[in-house]
Amino acid sequence: MGTMEETLKCPVCQDFFIDPVTLQCGHDFCLTCIQAVWETDLSDEGPFFCPECQIFLPSDLTLKVNADLQTKVKDFTTKTLSAAEQQAAASTSETKSSSAICCDQCIEMPSVAIRTCLTCDASLCQAHALLHQQRSALREHTVVEVTSDPLSLKCREHRDELKLFCMEEKVPVCCLCVLVGTHKHHKASQLHEAKADFKSMLETTMNQLLKRRSEAEHAIKDLESLYTQTVTSAAEFRERISDKYSRIHVVLNGDERLMMQIIDAEETCMTEWLEAQRSIVEAQIKEIDAFRASSKSLLQETNDLRFLQQITSQNLCDPLDFAPIREVNRDLCDPEKLRTVERLVDELSVALSQHFPRMWSYLSSPVLDFKTAHPKLELSQDRKQVYWRRQPFGEGQSPQPYDSQYSVLAQESFTGGQHYWEVIVQDKPFWMIGVTTGSVDKKASLSQSSSSLGVNNTSWCIYYGDGQYLACHDTQEKQLSVGKRVRKLGILANLQKGELSFYDADAMRLLHSFCVQWTEPLYPIFNPCIDMNGVNTQPLTLFWIKDPWDWHTREEKSELTGTI
User: Where does the record place the B box-type domain (predicted)?
Assistant: First the structure.
């Protein structure tokens, strides 16, 4: 069968004969193949020769189709392909029509096309594709892999081949587009040059991604180390402080409980934050891996035009601006509050009474009020966190990060007594935290209210931005001298004395105090500030413990029992 099949194939195109002709030397060829070899349509110029035996043939040679050989080819192909044809007939007509692209030059016996000539707008079988390569008049034509839609590879406006790439609009264009079309005066490059440039850029990006992934893995290791360190430190401080309290009078058990809860809350706060940072870095790794996989697949594309079409459709023409892998700041997990607790316990043993009641005794756990949140803010389900909602600004809008109207109130208000609460700011570059009086209409959102935090006579706040701390009230600003960056802000409101104090909640250092007189309910108010370019996405988080110490209730009980 193999020998029979070989005798029915043209030695030029290596396919079954199409209109076979027999030369005087006895060798057979397709009519179009021998004409392509001679680069003539049987003119009288000659010379003619056999490509097999190299024998020169007479100039008056006349080529005639060998009918017998043509019949043998048809019989053989019909016999050998009958089974395949029956199987193809059983498949759906849709599959058949979509997969079979026939040669536009073969008339009597259609052949499967393997190439498409964009110049001729024609699909070509192997023999006619070879003809395009061998004929001098056709060599300049653009021949690509077979496609059912050659117009998709041409300019839709001028129906000309896409031979250039507009570097300004990042799209393939034809020559007319650059000369007289919409891309006139635009900088354009050859397709292969544009591909080389973008391929180089993509390879550089791949190397950068590899480096960033390494940085992310290092950050993960640092976070794991900090996580272990935080848990270990909390355990060590808990053990030492418990031992110190065991040597103090039984009456101090309540204070010990408060201190232990502070440590527990600190540990929970830091471990949750570390886990959140780990999730962020892991998400960056997944994003990097996904982009590397798609880029690797794109780099394997050999067709210039398809490569450029894909790279433009995926918006990869310009170098990607990745957010940097933030180096883990080990100071974020500095157990300063735990050391503060231990220091206070040591001082308590020297002078017990002067430390009671402690500020943490008044620690309350306010929750945020959804009804008062500005539309551009987002609150967590437990109402303990407030974020800047990620959404683009409209045209012409250029808000400042410290715009004071983007705030949310706490649900509860204070009318008397002492109240203390803490807000976790960590490494947020911008934030505003303070209080405002009941003159704010809680039935309307703060975006519709005339109240703006820190810029009228009914609100007091601390603003942090550009590395500076400002105490703000009634359009007045006072710059504060703060040594170490505040990670948690504490606010103490003593309504009887008319004092409002702001503290570094970790070290219990006083930042600033306002002397005020309140005649209306006092509401805590929070402004996470606008996120500019993804640098201020972190939330403001309310610090809380499960069972706050009610100093006044326990003080009353102590008086009844006669204990200190």
Answer: 155-191
Q: What is the largest CA-CA distance in the chain?
A: 136
> What is the DSSP track for 447-490?
GGSS--TTSSTTEEEEEEETTEEEEEETTEEEEE--SSPPSEEE
Q: Give the span between the Cα atoms of 523 and 415, in whole angstroms.
A: 9
Amino acid at 173: V
Q: What is the pLDDT of residues 89-99, one digit of tens each?
A: 444 333 334 45
Phi and psi angles of residue 190, each rounded to the nearest 5 degrees, phi first = -65, 150
What is the end-to-end Cα distance of the chain in Å, rounded?
A: 111
| Model-wide pTM > 0.85 | no
439-451 burial, b for 16+ CB within 10 Å, e for fewer? bbebeebbeebeb
Indicate the angle between helix axes 126-134 and 31-38, nearest 10 degrees.
10
User: Helices (H) and strands (E) in the chain — how many of each?
Assistant: 11, 23
Cis before 357? omega within 30: yes
**Which residue, among 532, 431, 559, has the nearest Cα to 486 in the 3D structure?**
431
Instruction: Please state, in angstroms and as integers, the Cα–Cα distance from residue 147 to each residue in 102, 192, 350, following that order.
Output: 11, 20, 90
Report strand pairing: 188-190 vs 468-473.
unpaired
Q: Please, are residues 223 and 328 in contact by the beta-carbon 8 Å criterion?
A: yes
Across 18-27, 310-319, 461-470, least confident range: 310-319
